[in-house]
Structures are given as structure tokens and as C-alpha cells.
Amino acid sequence: xxxxxxxxxxxxxxxxxxxxxxxxxxxxxxxxxxxxxxxxxxxxxxxxxxxxxxxxxxxxxxxxxxxxxxxxxxxxxxxxxxxxxxxxxxxxxxxxxxxxxxxxxxxxxxxxxxxxxxxxxxxxxxxxxxxxxxxxxxxxxxxxxxxxxxxxxxxxxxxxxxxxxxxxxxxxxxxxxxxxxxxxxxxxxxxxxxxxxxxxxxxxxxxxxxxxxxxxxxxxxxxxxxxxxxxxxxxxxxxxxxxxxxxxxxxxxxxxxxxxxxxxxxxxxxxxxxxxxxxxxxxxxxxxxxxxxxxxxxxxxxxxxxxxxxxxxxxxxxxxxxxxxxxxxxxxxxxxxxxxxxxxxxxxxxx
Length: 351
Ligand SMILES: NC(=O)C1=CN([C@@H]2O[C@H](COP(=O)(O)OP(=O)(O)OC[C@H]3O[C@@H](n4cnc5c(N)ncnc54)[C@H](OP(=O)(O)O)[C@@H]3O)[C@@H](O)[C@H]2O)C=CC1
Ligand SMILES: CC(C)(CO)C(=O)C(=O)O
Description:
Elements: E1 13-17, H1 21-32, E2 36-41, H2 44-53, E3 55-59, E4 62-66, E5 70-72, E6 83-88, H3 95-102, E7 106-115, H4 121-128, E8 133-139, E9 142-143, E10 149-152, E11 160-165, H5 174-181, E12 186-189, H6 193-213, H7 218-222, H8 227-244, H9 257-261, H10 266-277, H11 286-292, H12 303-312, H13 318-332, H14 341-349
Parallel strand pairs: 1-2, 1-6, 2-5, 3-10, 6-7, 7-8, 11-12
Antiparallel strand pairs: 3-4, 8-11, 9-10
Helix pairs in contact: 3-4, 6-8, 6-10, 6-11, 6-13, 8-10, 8-12, 12-13, 13-14
The chain binds NADPH dihydro-nicotinamide-adenine-dinucleotide phosphate and ketopantoate.
Keywords: NADP, Oxidoreductase, Pantothenate biosynthesis
GO molecular function, one term: 2-dehydropantoate 2-reductase activity
Catalytic activity: (R)-pantoate + NADP(+) = 2-dehydropantoate + NADPH + H(+)
């Protein structure tokens, strides 16, 4: 009989904190890989559904039902053994308090990886320390409306991650997180995770809140006359903001250096790569899902950062400012997402 090969990941205690659309799917893949993983979420009905029936992951060609170990937030205080690795898969706006919640349950040499959109890595580092922080770019496209059920539109061959240390003290440990995420999709280890995350933010500024304002799936919204041009302007402002902050242009989504350097249409390349490779015609963004569930969105952590970066350098980002303004009106209940908003968006954005 072959001896059992115990890999380092197999002996690690792992938590997925925030087991929503992406977290439940990641937790299911890690569970299927035989790893010691628990999923923690604050939606009671969702946790109960996963406990009763497993996590149901509906993908285009396959549906999995995975018997995950799901916990409510209030169970955290019952945990006895600290975690080696916490994958934080909450929304960006839940980063700080989620880290504060889990920090007492993290090993002294444990790691927290922010598997999120937005520039969350430094917030994580402020709470758990830079030597225990790994930043991450995530590209899995998924939706969740019913407890226990994820609609994962990008199965593992179409899911992509980049991981990197935020500080020299954590360099060399990226592989520990990459080894987990390789069970979920393709993973690249990068030197400059802040720059990689800003490149993702360029894609997010192009697509997420912009299309959600029209209340439509992304691909449909991008076909509304005038919308694609507006989305590209939004992304370009984000790309320019990255340059103002000194972030180099880096390939993401599996693109190569030459794909991103030998083009003056970088934002368009990112948009077309996302729409062709990672999403389905009916994919609604994570932002639109938030609004459909009556929650606020990550707009401050995405478009808001673009506006702030330009302002710090004495400039403006009119499209992103318009996006933030309309998102606020929607979140206050003064405006409903819908295709009619294109005119308002264009006029506020100046054109
Ligand atoms: N969905 C997608 O297609 C993509 C999403 N992303 C990014 O991935 C991240 C996660 O997004 P997504 O999975 O869509 O988000 P979801 O809202 O579906 O999932 C997040 C879950 O975390 C829960 N939560 C919040 N705080 C805590 C906490 N402290 N402890 C435990 N659970 C908590 C939320 O509960 P509650 O519902 O009560 O708030 C929710 O169930 C975001 O940054 C998003 O932008 C990136 C690429 C694609
Ligand atoms: C997949 C998509 C566009 C949908 O929510 C997304 O959230 C992202 O690319 O970050």
C-alpha cells in the first residue's frame, strides 16, 4: 500500500471567514480536497442550510453538494484550537471588524489572506500585523440569493487568484495560501500585491458599480448605448489613479506582461478578458446582489478610492464621482437601479 503523503496544507487548521457567494464555494473546494476547514458566516439561515444539506455549488456543467463544516458567528467563541490560515472572504467594508473577531483565534505564526476586492490588505495588517498578512486578488464569478446555494459561474478552470505578502516579514509565505487556492483555481504569486490589487480595482471601477446602477447583468448593461464608453472612462480614471500612486501596470486574469504593456487599450483589454473569460450572460455583479438584498455596496472601497486618489493629487475623477453619487442615492432609497439611470450617470459624469 502506498504511504499516505501528508502535505503541509493537510495538517493545517483553516477557516473561511465570510462564507457567502465566493466563500462558500472556496470552502466547498477545500473541503473536497480533504483539508481541515470550517466555514463561518453571519447569515443564520445560510449556515443552517449548509449544516442540514451541505453547500450546493451550481456550476454551468456540474452541481456539487459538499458536506462542509459551517458555523455561525456566535460559534467562534467556542473554538478551542487556533487557525493556521484564515481566508477572509467578506465584503471589503467588513474587513476590520472581521479581523478583530478572528485575531484571538489566529496562531501566533498564522496568516490571514484577504480574498476580496478592494485594497483591504493594509487594514488586515493593521489588525493582525504585517507578518501575518497576505493580500489576494480574486476572480471567481458567483451569485447567491438562496441560503446554502451558490451559483458559481466560473468553475475552477475559469477562476484566477494572485497572492502576495504586504510586507517583507511575510515574504516567502505566499505559497501557503497559494497551495490552498490552487484547489479552487489558477494562482499566481506576485511581488507587488498592492499593484496587482489596484489593477483589479481598475477592472472593478469599470464594471461593478457602473453596471449595477443600471440594475442589469454586466454583459447586458455593457450593451446599452453609451454605457461601454462610460465604463471605459471609469476604468481609465482608475488606471490613471494607480499611476498617480506609483503602482506599476501588472497583468491579472492570466494575461501576460506583453498583453498589458503592448497596448494603449489596457482598460478595454481587461474588460473584454473579464466578460469573455469569467462571467456568464446573466451574471449580476456582487454589488447588484448587495442592493437586491437591501445591503450597501463596496462603492467606497472601489470607485471612492479612485476619487480620493485623484483629489490627493489635485485632480478629479468625474465618472467615478458620478458613480459614487448614484450609488449613494440608491443606497439611501432615493433612486432604484435601472437602465433609465444611464442618462443621469452620463450627465453627472459630464458627457
Ligand atoms: N461574487 C462575485 O462574483 C465576486 C466577488 N468578489 C469579491 O469577493 C468578496 C466576497 O464577495 P461575495 O462572496 O460576493 O460576498 P457575499 O456578500 O456573498 O458574502 C460575504 C458573506 O460574508 C458575511 N460576513 C460579513 N462579515 C462577516 C464576519 N465578520 N464573519 C462571518 N461572515 C461575515 C456576509 O454576511 P451578510 O450577508 O449578513 O452581510 C456574507 O454572507 C468581495 O470583496 C467581492 O467584491 C470578487 C470577484 C467576484
Ligand atoms: C465577477 C464580477 C465582475 C461580478 O461580481 C466581480 O465581482 C469581479 O470581477 O470582481
